[in-house]
């Protein structure tokens, strides 16, 4: 059962082009030159109930525009999106009770109010019954550990505390869909881990569908099985992360420690295996070396045999390509 349906979604903006100088200003006032910019170009995908979907793309790809259409802030130029049977931009007051939204760079909390009072205000806005409110707060406190700072004014909270508080605020009315935009931005490793565990628990126990937009690909790899990737307004990938790794994860990383740093000159991978451009990169810092190579052009076995046959090493290992490297190559190739 699909909870979110997106069909041929397109969004265009009109931009006025102004020529330089006073003459250009007068000309643009009386006879403006208008350019149509396509931010989102005919994308379609569907999300089943209870899935955590990674929605990613470089800056300017159109991610925020898609999220704004899905939350009802923007109306598409053409196409259609439907979430839990509702069209976001047609009946937004009713629709917003079905969703929760967290923007990592912005907060929906009242800056000078104690956190508990903020939740009390949101309870009235969303018309949450008293009994349900108590149950929700008990669950959210268990998942997000709010008790230690729930009486503090929002302005006194640390970034990690505020992010947990924002997620709780977005979940107070038990939404069907939770939109998370950069939920771990600026957080340290421990707090990031706590936020990820909270998202997983909310998804598992509540069956909440999560749309996760982030530049931290560790979030994607740890939380999502499927990703939708857009670039320049176009859909470039929709599928499982494991399939993406299988299809584009041909890069391997050979790391080793030399017994003598001068021996690195004995290794010429480019000439030996005819590896050039993106198929080979070498990082060498004294005795430590890191070689990224395309395993479709040369096997791991041959790389190891050549390396160990020419230099003495004290340690060596081979790593698979991580999701960041795979996605970088996918963007570059434009597939």
Automatic annotation (TrEMBL):
The keyword Isomerase does not apply. Transmembrane segments: none annotated. Keywords: ATP-binding, Nucleotide-binding, Transport. GO terms for molecular function: ATP binding; ATP hydrolysis activity. It holds the Pfam family ABC_tran. It comes from Ruminococcus bovis. This is ATP-binding cassette domain-containing protein. Residues 4-257 form the ABC transporter domain.
């Amino acid at each position: 059962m699909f909870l979110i349906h997106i069909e041929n979604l397109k969004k265009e903006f009109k931009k006025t082009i102004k020529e330089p100088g006073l003459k250009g200003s007068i000309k643009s006032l009386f006879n403006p030159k208008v350019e149509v910019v396509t931010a989102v170009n005919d994308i379609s995908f569907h999300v089943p109930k209870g899935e955590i979907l990674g929605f990613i793309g470089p800056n300017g790809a159109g991610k925020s525009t898609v999220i704004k259409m899905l939350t009802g802030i923007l109306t598409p130029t053409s196409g259609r999106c439907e979430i839990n049977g509702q069209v976001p931009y047609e009946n937004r007051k009713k629709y917003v009770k079905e969703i929760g939204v967290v923007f990592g760079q912005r907060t929906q909390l009242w800056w000078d109010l104690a956190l508990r009072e903020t939740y009390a205000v949101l309870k009235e806005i969303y018309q949450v019954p008293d009994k349900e409110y108590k149950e929700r707060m008990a669950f959210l406190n268990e998942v997000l550990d709010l008790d230690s700072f729930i009486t503090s004014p929002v302005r006194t909270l640390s970034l990690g505390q505020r992010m947990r508080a924002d997620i709780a605020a977005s979940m107070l009315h038990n939404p069907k869909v939770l939109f998370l935009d950069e939920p771990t931005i600026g957080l340290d490793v421990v707090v990031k881990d706590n936020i990820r565990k909270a998202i997983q628990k909310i998804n598992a126990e509540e069956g909440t569908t999560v749309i996760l937009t982030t530049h931290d690909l560790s979030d994607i790899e740890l939380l999502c099985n499927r990703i939708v990737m857009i670039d320049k307004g176009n859909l470039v990938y929709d599928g499982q992360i494991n399939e993406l790794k299988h299809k584009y994860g041909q890069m391997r990383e050979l790391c080793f420690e030399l017994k003598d740093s001068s021996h690195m000159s004995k290794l010429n991978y480019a000439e030996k295996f005819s590896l050039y451009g993106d198929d080979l990169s070498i990082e060498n810092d004294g005795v430590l070396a890191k070689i990224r190579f395309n395993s479709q052009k040369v096997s791991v076995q041959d790389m190891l045999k050549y390396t160990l046959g020419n230099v003495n090493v004290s340690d060596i290992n081979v790593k698979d390509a991580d999701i960041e490297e795979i996605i970088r190559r996918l963007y570059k190739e434009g597939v």
